[in-house]
């Protein structure tokens, strides 16, 4: 009996890890152009700002897909749905790797964006169904750690691959990772019972709740600010701060390693110290981005590296912290609350990329960092108005499936 329980526990945590890899794959696919702006733009004859709009369009389509899927796909069994979605994402990246024009690349990305939004909306509550309630925070940290890892590590890795062998090779690698992840999901993720689709009343009840409204407002501000700056991090470092290619990718990898460290720290403290963790992370991000914007190249490679470490640790904690907060506050309403959160998160990614392009056109690449720091400070206001969250509660199968 004990051996069976240990085997079941091992399989549950393997499934959680695979879902974390899945979230890494889908968000790396979404954000890969950030590390490839210069090479894609040069190859297709487009400006970096226009290529950055690929991120905006992708994110907004994914946001709409997340909400629609919560209302329309509630009765679809989760495991085969996740496998199918990951295969669609693999196809999207494979087609993107073969495109030769900007419209064709955008079209391939649209296909992936739809699958992306549905996938993310579905995995938001799976951790709470797979592991015991006392481990929900850790499971969420692992699953959504893939999101932060993609942002802070997947993007620089895609950029390095693009620098060494071209941006199409980077998309081909993402396609391969997505295909392998689909196979891993088919092997490891248990069958999770589906539930009734989310109705409009359930969504309306969530958006009338002041606690969720404050979390969503803080999320919108923080994610918009992060991606306004992060979408253009490659040209900021290479053109505005005059970093040579070797130093640039070393700094991006430093940012990535810091993000992984931030994810580990978040997993250790998120269940007990959620509000101070999120507040501190937002403050560190604001200071780091403000420092890059104000000091620029005068900070030197070492100074920029330190600021990127603070940024990477902070954003990892913010990614996991807000999703965990949603699940803790929602209880049995986890699916509609998470679907709205995913939609807002992706909409904010698109808004951030667009804001960055506008700010660049009006000021400079370095000016984006300062503007982002101000928006991050604004995100602390709704967080301060939130009550301290209670202990983690697992959503019921009916509500969260």
- Give the fraction of residues assigned to helices: over 70%
Instruction: Give the CATH superfamily.
Output: MFS general substrate transporter like domains
What's the CATH topology name?
Growth Hormone, Chain: A
Please work out how many helical segments DSSP would assign. 17
Give the CATH architecture: Up-down Bundle
Task: Sketch the major β-sheet.
Answer: none
* Low-pLDDT stretches: 392-401
Count of the separate structural domains: 1
- Per DSSP, what share of the residues sits in E-state strands of 2 or more residues? under 5%
What does this entry look like structurally?
This protein is mainly α and 401 residues long. The protein has one domain: MFS general substrate transporter like domains (Growth Hormone, Chain: A). Helices cover 83% and strands 0% of the residues. α7 (136-165) packs antiparallel against α12 and α10 (210-230) runs antiparallel to α14 (300-330). The model is unreliable at 392-401 (pLDDT under 50).
Keyword list:
Growth Hormone, Chain: A, single chain, globular
Care to give the gist of this entry?
This protein is mainly α and 401 residues long. It contains 17 helices and no strands. Residues 15-390 form the Major facilitator superfamily (MFS) profile domain.
Strand and helix layout:
Blueprint: H1 2-31, H2 37-44, H3 48-72, H4 78-98, H5 102-123, H6 126-130, H7 136-165, H8 167-188, H9 200-207, H10 210-230, H11 233-240, H12 245-269, H13 274-295, H14 300-330, H15 334-362, H16 365-384, H17 397-400
Helix pairs in contact: 1-5, 1-7, 1-8, 2-3, 3-5, 3-15, 4-5, 4-8, 5-15, 7-8, 7-12, 7-14, 10-14, 10-15, 10-16, 12-14, 13-14, 13-16, 14-15
């Amino acid at each position: 009996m004990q051996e069976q329980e240990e085997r079941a526990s091992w399989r549950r945590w393997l499934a959680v890890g695979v879902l974390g890899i899945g979230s890494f794959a889908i968000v790396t696919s979404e954000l890969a152009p950030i590390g490839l702006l210069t090479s894609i733009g040069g190859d297709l004859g487009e400006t970096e700002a226009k290529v950055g709009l690929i991120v905006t369009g992708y994110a907004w389509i994914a946001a709409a897909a997340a909400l629609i899927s919560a209302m329309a796909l509630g009765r679809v069994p989760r495991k085969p749905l996740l496998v199918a979605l990951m295969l669609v994402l693999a196809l999207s990246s494979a087609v993107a790797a073969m495109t030769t024009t900007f419209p064709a690349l955008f079209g391939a990305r649209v296909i992936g964006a739809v699958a992306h939004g549905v996938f993310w909306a579905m995995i938001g509550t799976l951790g709470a169904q797979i592991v015991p309630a006392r481990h929900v925070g850790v499971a969420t940290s692992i699953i959504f750690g893939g999101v932060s890892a993609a942002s802070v590590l997947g993007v620089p890795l895609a950029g390095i691959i693009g620098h060494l062998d071209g941006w199409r090779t980077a998309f081909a690698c993402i396609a391969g990772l997505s295909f392998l992840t689909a196979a891993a999901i088919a092997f490891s993720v248990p069958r999770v019972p589906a539930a009734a689709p989310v109705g409009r009343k359930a969504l309306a009840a969530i958006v009338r709740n002041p606690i969720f409204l404050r979390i969503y407002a803080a999320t919108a501000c923080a994610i918009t600010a992060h991606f306004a700056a992060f979408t253009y991090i490659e040209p900021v470092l290479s053109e505005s701060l005059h970093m040579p290619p070797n130093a640039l990718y070393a700094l991006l990898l430093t940012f990535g390693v810091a993000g992984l460290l931030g994810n580990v720290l978040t997993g250790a403290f998120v269940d007990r110290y959620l509000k101070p963790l999120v507040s501190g992370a937002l403050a560190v991000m604001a200071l780091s981005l403000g420092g890059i914007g104000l000091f620029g190249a005068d900070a030197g490679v070492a100074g920029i590296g330190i600021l990127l470490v603070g940024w990477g640790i902070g954003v990892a904690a913010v990614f996991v912290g807000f999703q965990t907060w949603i699940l803790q506050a929602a209880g049995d309403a986890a699916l509609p609350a998470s679907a709205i959160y995913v939609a807002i998160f992706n909409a904010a990614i698109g808004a951030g990329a667009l804001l960055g392009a506008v700010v660049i056109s009006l000021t400079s690449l370095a000016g984006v960092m300062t503007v982002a720091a101000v928006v991050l400070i604004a995100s602390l206001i709704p967080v301060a108005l939130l009550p301290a969250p209670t202990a983690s509660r697992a959503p019921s199968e009916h509500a969260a499936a």
